[in-house]
Amino acid sequence: MSEIVLVIGKIFLIVGLAFDLLGCIGLVRLPDVYNRLQASTKCVTLGTCFILFGTFLLSDFLWKSILAIVFIVMSSPTGAHAIAHAAHRSGIKLWEKSVVDKLKEDKK
């Protein structure tokens, strides 16, 4: 395997770890369930995909990594949407500084 592929794979791993770290910090620091879902869906999904792609490059093109990326990209937004919709239906309030509640407006 060429040296450039190894370097690119390591860069993908580092960037993925940074995104995952930011997503985990967002889960702890953000004020309500809706903002936390935003952090987990965007940062952690992208970070995990970067880590898996780095693994794909470093392990002589292991195709399981690509299949895992496809599964994560398809299932993570769907799961986050289902959790957010269930939270809204069960009456969990938005953060007091939230500006717009489009789902509440659409129900009217």
From TrEMBL:
Keywords: Membrane, Transmembrane, Transmembrane helix. It holds the Pfam family PhaG_MnhG_YufB. InterPro entries: PhaG_MnhG_YufB. The keyword Lipid metabolism does not apply. The chain crosses the membrane at residues 6-28, 40-59, 65-87. One of its GO terms (molecular function) is sodium:proton antiporter activity. The keyword Transmembrane helix applies. This is Na+/H+ antiporter subunit G.
